[in-house]
Predict the 3D structure of the following.
Amino acid sequence: MSRFAAVLKKDVLVNKKNLLIPYIIMAVFYILMTAIILSQASKMNFEFDDMYVSFNEPSAAASYIGNIFLLALPGFLSVIFTLLLAQSALNEDLRRNCELFHRSQPISIWKRTISKFIVAVAGNWVFLIVLGIVNLIISAIILTQFVPFHIGKALVGFIQAFIGFAKFNLIVGSIAFFCSAIFKDKALLKGLAILVGVHVFLGILELFLNISIPSPLSYLGKLLQDTSVTINSNLNHNLKTFILDRWQSLILNSKVLIQLVFSAVMYAAGTLIYKNREVK
Amino acid sequence: MSYISIRGLSKYYGKQKALNNINLEIPKGRIVGLLGKNGAGKSTLMRSILGFLKYEGQIKILGEDIAHNAMVTKKDIAFIPDVSCLDDRLTVGQTIDYVKNVNFNWDEATAERLLKKSDLPLNKKVSALSKGMKTKLYLLITLALDVKILLLDEPTLGLDILFRKEFFNTILGEFYNSEKTIIISTHQVEEVEHILQDIIFIDYGNLILYENVQNLKDKYNIISVPCSQKNALLAYQPQMMHEALGKVHAIVKSEVQIEGAEYNRPGLSDLFVAKVGGLHE
C-alpha cells in the first residue's frame, strides 16, 4: 500500500461515522416514504394503472427530470456533511489531542491535507453516486410500471445532477476547509460571520459614501450560481436543447475553470496556513 | 558527527522567551535526561527538534538542517509524548497498520515480537484501552521503527509504577544500542537516573548544565552534620542545605571533608535542586 493510500485509508476510518450518516438518513427516508405511499395507496384504493395516461407522452422528460429531483435530498445532505467534515478537517486531530501523533509520522503536510480534503469532499461525492444509482434503479422500477423508461435520459439526469452538486460541494467544501485553517473552532460559522460582516460594511459604505466595492459574499454567490436547475415549461418538446444547455452550464464554460481554480486556491491557502501552525 | 546539533536556539511565545540561546551537541549512543521545572522549556526544546515550532537558531539532525529538510526529522526520529496522544478513533490494528504503512523503516519482526508480548486486542478501539495498554501500543509502534533517535516527553505521565518500570525496561531492551540516542524528559528522574548517561538541566529557557551523569555525581557529596555544625558547613558554600531529623544536610563539592560527618552520593534530583534552586535553608 502506498503511503498516501495509507493516510487516505486512515482518514476514511476516522471519519467513518460522518461519512455513513447520510446513507442512514436516506435509508430511513426511503423506508418511511415507502410505508406512507403503500398505506395511502391501500386506503384510497389507488390503481397504479390510472397514472399511465398522464405520464405517457413525456416519459423521456420524466426519466430525466425524475433523476435530477431524486438527487435533490441526497444532494442537500451531501452539502451539509461536506461542510461538517471540511470545517473540522484541520482541527479535529487537535481537538482530540492526537495532532502530535499524526504530525510525528513521516508524511508531508500536503499529503495529509489533500487526504483530509478528499475525504470531506469526495467522500460525499461517493454518497451522491451511490444514491444516484439507487435512485436510477428505483425510478426504473417505478416508471416502467406506467411508461417506457428512458435509461439514457435518466442517466443524463443523474449525471448532471451529480456534477451540479459535486461542483457545489467542491466550492463550499474548499471554503470550509480554508476556514478550518484559520479558526480552530466553529470555523465555518466564524468565516461566514466575517463574510456577512464585510458584506454589510461594504453595503453601508455604498449607501452613505457612494463608494462601490465588490463584496466577497456576492462574488461567492455568483461563483456558485450556475449549479441551480431551472426547468423550462416546454421541456417535453425541448428536452434535447435543455440537456445541452445544462451541459453548457455545468462543464462546458470558462466559469468551471474559475470554480476549479478557486477551490484549489482555497485548499492551498488553507494548507499553507495549517503548515505554519505550531504544535505546542 | 553529532546526532543532534543545536546552535543559538531561541524560542518566543509572544513576548515570553521559552528558550534562550541554547547550544547543544548530542552524539550517538547516549541516553540523555532532560530535567527542568514545569514550564522550563523541556517540551519546547523537544518540539523544536521535531520541527513542530518556529524558532531562531539552527537545529541539525544527523548533519541535516531541519529548517531545510523537515522530513529528516520524521525519518530518523521517533517521538513518544504523553501516550494519550494516540488517535482514539482508530482500533489497535488500524493504528499499527497506519504507522507501518507510512513509515519506511518499519521492522515487522520487532513489531510481531512486541505484539505477541503485549496481548494488545487488535480489534479494540484505542479509546477503550487502559492507559497501560495505550503505553504498550505506543511502545510497539515506536520501537518497531528502525530510527536513530528517540525522544520521550513525559511518556509515563499518569502510569503506575509497574508500567513505568516496564516502559523503560522495554525501551532499553528493544531499542537502545550504541548507534542510537535517547532523550528522556521526565519528572520522575529517580526512576531513570540509573540508565541515564548524560543530563541536561534547563530552567527558564536557559541551559543550566549538560554533563555526564557520573562525572557530575563525582563532583559533589551530600554531607550530613549535627545542627551544631551548621556554621562550619556554611563555610564550604554548599549548593543546597536543609535541616531534617536533627541534622543539617548539604550538597558540597566532593573535596570537602568534615570530621564526624556522614557522606552520601547525591541523586540527580538533589543536584537539580542544588543547581537550579540554589542555596535553601
Notes: Residues 202 and 213 of chain A are 7 Å apart (CA to CA). The two ends of chain A are 32 Å apart (CA to CA). Chain A has a mean pLDDT of 85. Chain A is about 80% helix and 0% strand.
